[in-house]
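#onboarding

Welcome to the new folks! Below is a worked example of what a typical request in this channel looks like: someone posts a single protein sequence, and someone else replies with the predicted structure as tokens. Don't worry about understanding the tokens yet, we'll cover that in week two.

Example request:
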Amino acid sequence: MFRLASLFDLTGRTALVTGGNSGIGLAMARGLGLAGARLVLVARREGELIQAAAQLQADGIDARWFTADLALPEVAAELAEACAREKLDIDILVNAAGINLRQAFDAVSAEAFDLHMAVHLRAPFLLTQRFAPAMAERGHGRIINIASLQSWRAFADSAPYGAAKGGVLQLTRATAEAWSRHGVTCNAIAPGFFPTPLTAPVFGDPERAARNAAQTAIGRNGELDDLIGATVFLASPASAYITGQTLAVDGGFTAK
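Example response:
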């Protein structure tokens, strides 16, 4: 008998999650692990990676990690080589690493602008170049990018971040166009306001956090577990005919 649960089962799959040491990346990784996937976490800070992997392993999830600075263009090739050495066939790629320097428009340097583009756009592009061909050879793959409310809206002191996140929408479409015919889909999740290290300045201001919550249709800010369902869906067989799309997990913020 067909069981609906099989549509969301990731047993036997391996997911590489950038930014998997904390915040949104770690929450998404945990969801994939609970659905049966083996995890490869990637981030810059080794201590946080060790701690994150230990947390996941305590939940019975197979998790390992590599340290890498995703702002460097050579890192994609290095990660692909490291996975090959460990005999890790990556089936799911989650590009969740992010930064936001939160500088006034006229204070942004060329270097700061380029850093946002490198992390949010170049790294996902280069990682896809490295991992999508092997996914295509196996006839199956899932790529999930992280967009933002700022993919559509402009927020103060975030011009480079918003520009990069606007680009994520088109990168997601371009990736879908290039690889979906080979069984490799690409979609993006656009989170609303979630408490993470990146949004600490927002949640550190109770009045501002309450104002953001009131602007959602649901009436509250996000909790990290709210991302798990969308992540597993887009990584699983359930989303086989969905590609090139961006799903806002924002409590209806963009609907109002």
